[in-house]
Amino acid sequence: MEAKVKQIGKPLTPSLHTALRRWRPYLWGLLFLLPEIIIFSVFQWKPIVMSIYYSMTNVDVIHGNSFVGFENYRRVFEDDAILIAVKNTLYYVFLGLVIGFWVPSVAALALSELRWFRGTARLIVYLPNIVPAVVLYGMWKWLYDPIGPVNQFLGWLSIEPVRWLTDKMWAMASIVFMSTWQHFGATTLIYLAAILGVPKDLYEAAEIDGARVWHRIIYITLPSIKMIFLLMFVMQFISTSQSYEAHLAMTDGGPNNATLTYMLHVVKNGFYKFDFGKASAMGVLMFVVLTSLSVALYRLQRKEDHA
Amino acid sequence: MALAACLSLILVLTGCSTEETPGANQSPEPGTASDKPVETDKTQQKITLTIPYPKPDKEAERKAADDKMKRFKEKYPNVEFKTSDWLYSEGGAATLAVKMAANEAPSYYNTYATEAKVLTEKGYAADITEFMNKYEYADQFNRSLFDIFKIDDKVYAVPTDGYVMSIGVNAKLFKEKNVPLPPLDWTWNELLEAAKKVNDPAKGIAGFAVAAKTNAAGWNFTNFLYQSGEFVEAVQDGKATATFNSEAAATAMKFYRNLRWDANVLPGDWNLANPDLSALYKQGRLGIILHAGSLNTAINDGGMSPDDVRIYPLPSIEKGKPNYAITGGNYFVINPKISKEEQEMAFNYIVFDFFQDSGIAAEEKTVQERQANNQMHIPSSIMYYEQNSEYGQKVQAMYDKYPGVVYKYDPAFLSSFSTNAMPEPPFYAQDFYAEMTNIIQEVFTDKNADYRKLLADAQQKFQADFLDKIE
Question: What pTM, to 2 d.p., does this model score?
Answer without folding.
Answer: 0.80
